[in-house]
């Protein structure tokens, strides 16, 4: 199902280095052969100079800070959230099957929902994400059309000391939105002194104070964190080399516990250099990964005869 597959510049560099450098001079930490893979979502047109997938996702579970089963306290134009057991996201090894309906009233255009004490405190040195669901175009149209429509805050409080990440309505779409910066939490905008990261809030700004959300219009689920190593997994099998046709076939496996909740559409092969090198990449038709699925991803890299 590959739509495009490409050996990257760094992959060619690895081949050159390993072919033309004397064995006695080979570094133990540079230009190693590819031995791990990562996967991603929304991968665009490939370029030979790519050094990673466009939007790599965590393969391993990482840490769940809030699984989405805890009701959030509403304030300003937000009412207390309610459980949604029909619209939720799989992932991070969680089995609660519950998201939170963000209920909004008509008292203010600024609507806030908060958890004062996370199940697990956040870590500023880790990657961070959550899922944000928009039912339809009517709900999306209520979000502020000029300026910040959605803000995520994590800190010792969410009024004066927190990390902040924002999205405009143009950056959101109907359905599930994966809210992640692609970098660690400490790179978010810093307000005051974030301190102990046990407080979490979602703030939505609408076009009008009278804009309301009922159950199912907007749903939040699964605040989670992970480390750089959680992006990668070892090959399922060592590459098979075909010297007649000058090609290498690599099998990568996403088990039933890996990368759940994502529409996976890309695969990258990487080495374990101190600064990792991406040897090759594949883009394919997106497939939704759920806990009942195992994906066997097979990459075939061929050198021209």
Describe the structure.
6% of the residues lie in helices and 39% in strands. The strands form 4 sheets. Strands 3, 5, 6, 8, 11 and 14 form a 6-stranded antiparallel beta sheet that branches. It folds into 2 domains: 2-59 and 229-302, no CATH class; 63-226, Galactose-binding domain-like (Jelly Rolls). The model has no long low-confidence stretch (mean pLDDT 95). It has 305 residues and is mostly beta strands.
Give the biggest sheet: 6 strands, antiparallel
Regions with little confidence, pLDDT below 50 for 5+ residues: none
Q: Radius of gyration over alpha carbons?
A: 22 Å
Encode the helix/strand succession as letters: EHEEEEEEEHEEEEEEEEEEEE
Number of β-strand runs: 20
Domain count: 2
Specify the helix fraction band: under 10%
Q: Approximately how much beta-strand content do the residues carry? A: 35-45%
Which terms summarize this structure?
mainly beta; 305 residues; Jelly Rolls; six-stranded antiparallel β-sheet
Describe the secondary structure blueprint for this structure.
Layout (H helix, E strand, L loop, with lengths): L1 E6 L1 H12 L15 E5 L22 E4 L6 E4 L5 E3 L14 E3 L8 E6 L11 E8 L2 H6 L7 E6 L6 E6 L7 E10 L4 E3 L7 E7 L12 E9 L6 E2 L5 E3 L4 E8 L8 E8 L7 E11 L6 E8 L3
Antiparallel strand pairs: 1-19, 2-15, 2-18, 3-14, 4-7, 5-6, 6-14, 7-13, 8-11, 8-14, 9-10, 9-13, 10-12, 16-17, 17-20, 18-19
């Amino acid at each position: 199902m590959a739509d495009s597959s490409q050996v990257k510049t760094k992959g060619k560099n690895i081949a050159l280095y390993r072919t033309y450098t004397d064995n006695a001079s080979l570094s133990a930490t540079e230009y190693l052969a590819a031995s791990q893979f990562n996967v991603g979502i929304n991968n665009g047109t490939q370029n030979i100079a790519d050094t990673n997938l466009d939007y790599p996702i965590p393969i391993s579970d990482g840490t769940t800070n809030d699984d989405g089963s805890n009701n959030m306290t509403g304030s300003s134009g937000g009412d207390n959230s309610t459980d949604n057991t029909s619209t939720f996201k799989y992932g991070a090894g969680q089995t609660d099957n519950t998201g939170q309906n963000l209920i909004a009233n008509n008292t203010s255009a600024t609507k806030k929902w908060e958890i004062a004490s996370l199940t697990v405190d956040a870590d500023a040195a880790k990657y961070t994400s959550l899922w944000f669901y928009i039912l339809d175009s009517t709900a999306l149209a209520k979000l502020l059309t000029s300026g910040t429509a959605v803000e995520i805050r994590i800190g010792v409080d969410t009024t004066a000391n927190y990390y902040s990440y924002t999205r405009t309505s143009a950056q959101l779409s109907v359905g599930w939105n994966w809210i992640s910066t692609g970098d660690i939490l400490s790179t978010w905008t810093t307000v005051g002194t974030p301190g102990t990261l046990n407080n979490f809030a979602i703030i939505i700004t609408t076009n009008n104070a009278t804009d309301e959300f009922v159950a199912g219009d907007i749903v939040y689920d699964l605040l989670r964190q992970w480390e750089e190593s959680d992006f990668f997994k070892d090959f399922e099998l060592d590459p098979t080399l075909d010297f007649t046709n000058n090609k290498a076939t690599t099998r990568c496996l996403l088990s039933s516990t890996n990368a759940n909740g994502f529409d996976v559409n890309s695969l990258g092969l990487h080495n374990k250099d101190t600064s990792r090198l991406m040897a090759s990449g594949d883009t394919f038709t997106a497939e939704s990964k759920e806990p009942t699925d195992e994906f066997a991803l097979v990459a075939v890299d061929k050198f021209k005869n």
